[in-house]
Amino acid sequence: MPYGQGTRLPGEAASKLGHLAVIESPWVKSLVEDFESAPAVDGDPSKTVWQTFDPKEVVPLRGVWAVDGSFVPVRSEQKPPREVAFVKTALLMLDKAKLDVIDKDLPHPLLLRDALKDTGVQHATVFPLKNVRTSMGTNYDAVRNIVRDSMRVDQGGAYHDTMKWLAYRKWEPDSTARSPAFQCPHCRKDVDSGLDHDAETGLCPHCGGEVFLSDLWGFHMEMGEDSAPESLASSYMLIMEHLMLFTAVRLMWHHSDRSLVADTLFIKDGPLTLRSQYSKMVPNIRDFLQYAKVTGRPVHIIGQEKSGTFFDHLASIVRFAAPHNRGEPLTYAPLMHSYVHREVYRSPDVSNPYGLKTNWGEKMYVKVDPGAFMVLNVPTGNYKADSDWPTAGDLIGLSRILATLPSLVSHKFEGALYPVELANGIASMSSYPSATILQRFLEGQASR
Ligand SMILES: [Zn+2]
Predict the structure, then answer these.
(1) What are the domain boundaries of the chain?
(2) Whole-angstrom distance, CA of residue 148 vs CA of residue 155
(3) What's the CA-to-centroid distance between 183 and ligand 1, angstroms?
(4) Which pLDDT band, with edges at 50, 70 and 90, does 412 fall under?
(5) Ligand 1: distance of its center to the CA of 190 in Å?
């Protein structure tokens, strides 16, 4: 997803409310006055605890991988309109040594091309959303099969292998683990015992129907018999971003150079979160990262949130934090669960621990220089529900991550990371065929 317009860029300053008749009401008048005159605040109302980072004696990470995705729904002109969604994801490898010589503000196109040469892989697929029928079966079955086939088709099946690696805990030597439990797409009962170790398909113990390992994600739970919502495309994008990122992790984990995986920064666009039915893989992801940590091969991953609740909160308080001038040291603030509830969501009384089922990374604010701040997610391995958790020591590889960040900051957008920007360029809408061509494609399908 693209970076948003920053707050330091010129915005619309003129009053949009002054001409309203209702302004005569003293209540409305007072509201408008408060609204238009930013109240003076002396200090950070959230009392965020920022820590100063000292990069001395910390070795930055050598390689950088970034993953990003996008999707675009397309409707045909016919009645009733046919609708499909195209999804695209990209994984990009950057050699930091090559990246370091590139001017971050005015990148030289040839140097950039060199840094990117042969290092990006992309993946794309298309889903039927409405009024599209295949001769193979219902829309419901079409989507299940497209999910499975799409995961299997690229890179010699590497992404599908990564799903198996995560589901069957193949980082453990001699693992015999079964897959996590999931809902049968035919009878909607839970397949509690999961699938046999390493299986790609199995039979539902309740109805005998054939289930795929890729049904584990639960895409079918978002769908009706004959149509699928647009959210299906965003969910698939999210899952593919995870599979692509962990494919890079997996290949390095099993690489003969055993130091490689711990010497690399993996960046995902967006939070390290899998919500609702997609969260079934979260315990395995946490277990792997914990395993990697305790065996001395920590995996450095960050997720960057470029919009949303955390980003808005950080934007409202970041001016109170150092560094106030360029050249001053970077500061960071790991966010404890109590802080997230109290200051970010402003709902201190919630009963569920923050991120219990869904998050495989914890939140952290970083301010690199006066114009560059970001919301990052960093894994911890094991999760703790405590309200005063996590602290800096719980975030895997924090020092090396922080030592690497400054060289990755781009000044094209506020708080943008160069590798994410580049991955976004590959995965973005602009590299889709134009909407007209996609529509014609849809209409061409109709006449067959
Ligand atoms: Zn069943």
Answers:
(1) 63-127+230-441
(2) 14
(3) 8
(4) confident
(5) 8
